[in-house]
């Protein structure tokens, strides 16, 4: 075997989706250590360079490692009972008003220990990884006390330490009003701003701060107070907004330079323009749209024409999106939201990374210098990843330059 002191690896003859588009010719990709070092058409591959690399294989479709920029993977309990209620015609909002929904999961999550939550979340994350995820965002939001929110964030951090995947954490203290604050939502927002955010920031447990801006959650004004507290602690922000109604949460979030506005089925034209001006990403969550039988479609055409980057994520959670299969979301993005397969894939690679503020390091793209997080798929074209729903097509998941199976 050729000496290879720099740990260089070569993939030949791949059909390459680089995070934004599919390149026209078969490509060669060289990884050195944990970085991409060379991306060239096969016709330009210098065999002297190839001889100094370990040969990793030939053919297949290569994409950036998939980025799931919106999940709630850490939680206790199950909401299968509510699933059945919704099928009988009770709405997600009604269930929430009756003290179920998010609060149902809050009860189970508070009762669970850190190690129990870790044991529950691990197989969910492994399912995402088997389907190509190399970067995942995980939110808190089912603890709703300072200690329980920090507990969730510690579990998320530990998942990233123990498994070969990048984990980005988000504090979602303003997810729902906990029962002990009934009728006192401003006082709860005080707790989020004055205690939760400072504690999470001080302990380095949160990479960003999120809110749920909705009639069944928090008002635009309350969410803005959360954002001001986040800014005071140097944390970027994002919002669950315009999911069930149009309150203007996305526009306010954009005014604060949000990384993203997520769900956004009810986003109007002013909101689209606000996202564009702020450079925020529109995170589309077709799994929640599907699960809740929504009918209001996000303003895809306006986002596309205005040039707002669209990300796609699983929103994996026990209530509105108990779906742990990223490539199914690519399919849903196309079938339910009419994205093209190219747009859907960009949404789970380059734009997903942008929604997490990681694009400056070229995460989610296959270019020289980018982190070597890659997927090699046994399919004929990138579009097949969105076209067919078929587990088991991932030949290699390459994390920080190292191929791993699943
Ligand atoms: O992204 N919209 C609010 N939060 C989650 C749902 C959480 C739940 O129902 O448990 C979402 O859909
Ligand atoms: Fe969510």
Written account of the structure:
With about 400 residues, the protein is α/β, with parallel strands linked by helices. Helix content is about 35%, strand content about 20%. The chain contains 16 helices and 16 strands. Strands 1, 2, 3, 4, 5, 14, 15 and 16 form an eight-stranded mixed beta sheet that branches. Helix 5 packs across helix 6, helix 7 packs parallel to helix 8 and helix 13 packs across helix 14. It is globular, with a radius of gyration of 21 Å. The mean pLDDT is about 95. N-(iminomethyl)-L-glutamic acid binds next to helix 4.
* Alpha-carbon distance between the two ends: 27 Å
How many DSSP E strands? 16
Report the uncertain regions: none
Share of residues in helices: 25-40%
Gross morphology is: globular
Helical segment count: 16
How confident overall, as mean pLDDT?
97
Main beta-sheet strand count, sense and barrel state: 8 strands, mixed
Amount of beta strand? 15-25%
Q: Cofactors and ligands present?
A: N-(iminomethyl)-L-glutamic acid, fe (iii) ion
Sheet/helix structural class: alpha/beta
Rounded to an integer in angstroms, the radius of gyration calculated over CA atoms is: 21 Å
Summary tags:
406 residues, alpha/beta, eight-stranded mixed sheet, eight-stranded parallel sheet, 16 helices, globular, binds N-(iminomethyl)-L-glutamic acid, binds fe (iii) ion
SSE order and pairing:
Blueprint: E1 8-16, E2 27-32, E3 35-41, H1 47-51, E4 54-58, E5 61-64, E6 66-68, H2 80-87, H3 92-97, H4 102-111, H5 114-130, E7 133-139, H6 146-162, E8 166-174, H7 185-202, E9 208-213, H8 220-232, E10 237-241, H9 249-255, E11 260-263, H10 269-278, E12 281-284, H11 286-291, H12 300-306, E13 310-312, H13 326-335, H14 341-347, H15 350-355, E14 374-377, H16 383-387, E15 394-399, E16 402-404
Parallel strand pairs: 1-4, 1-5, 6-7, 7-8, 8-9, 9-10, 10-11, 11-12, 12-13
Antiparallel strand pairs: 1-2, 2-3, 5-14, 14-15, 15-16
Helix pairs in contact: 5-6, 6-7, 7-8, 9-10, 13-14
The protein binds N-(iminomethyl)-L-glutamic acid and fe (iii) ion.
N-(iminomethyl)-L-glutamic acid (NIG) is lined by residues 72, 101-102, 105, 212, 240, 243, 288, 315, 317-321.
């Amino acid at each position: 075997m050729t000496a290879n002191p720099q740990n260089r690896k070569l993939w030949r003859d791949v059909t390459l989706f680089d995070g934004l588009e599919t390149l026209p010719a078969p490509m060669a990709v060289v990884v050195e250590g944990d970085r991409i070092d060379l991306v060239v058409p096969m016709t330009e591959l210098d065999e002297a360079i190839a001889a100094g690399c370990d040969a990793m294989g030939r053919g297949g479709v290569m994409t950036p490692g998939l980025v799931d920029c919106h999940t709630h993977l850490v939680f206790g309990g199950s909401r299968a009972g509510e699933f059945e209620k919704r099928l009988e015609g009770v709405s997600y909002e009604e269930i929430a008003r009756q003290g179920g929904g998010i609060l149902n999961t809050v009860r189970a999550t508070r009762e669970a220990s850190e190690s129990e939550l870790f044991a529950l979340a691990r197989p969910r994350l492994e399912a995402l990884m088997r389907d190509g995820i190399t970067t995942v965002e995980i939110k808190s939001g089912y603890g709703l006390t300072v200690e329980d929110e920090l507990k969730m964030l510690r579990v998320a951090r530990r998942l990233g330490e123990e498994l070969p995947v990048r984990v980005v954490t988000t504090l979602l203290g303003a997810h729902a009003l906990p029962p002990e604050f009934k009728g006192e939502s401003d006082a709860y927002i005080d707790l989020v701003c004055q205690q939760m955010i400072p504690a999470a920031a001080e302990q380095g447990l949160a990479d960003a701060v999120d809110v749920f801006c909705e009639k069944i959650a928090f008002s635009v004004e309350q969410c803005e107070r959360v954002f001001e507290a986040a800014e005071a602690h140097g944390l970027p922000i994002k919002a669950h907004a315009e999911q069930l109604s149009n309150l203007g949460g996305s526009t306010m979030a954009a005014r604060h330079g949000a990384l993203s506005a997520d769900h956004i089925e009810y986003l109007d034209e002013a909101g689209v323009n606000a996202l564009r001006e702020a450079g925020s990403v529109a995170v589309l969550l077709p799994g929640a749209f599907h699960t809740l039988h929504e009918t209001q479609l996000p303003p895809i055409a306006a986002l596309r024409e205005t040039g707002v980057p669209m990300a796609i994520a699983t929103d994996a959670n026990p209530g509105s999106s108990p779906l742990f299969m990223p490539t199914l979301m690519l399919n849903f993005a196309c079938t339910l939201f009419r994205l093209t397969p190219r747009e859907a894939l960009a949404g789970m690679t380059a734009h997903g990374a942008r929604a997490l503020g990681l694009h400056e390091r070229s995460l989610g793209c296959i270019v020289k210098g980018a982190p070597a997080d890659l997927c090699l798929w046994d399919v004929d074209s990138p579009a097949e990843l969105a076209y067919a729903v078929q587990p088991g097509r991932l030949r290699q998941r390459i994390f920080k330059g190292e191929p791993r199976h699943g």
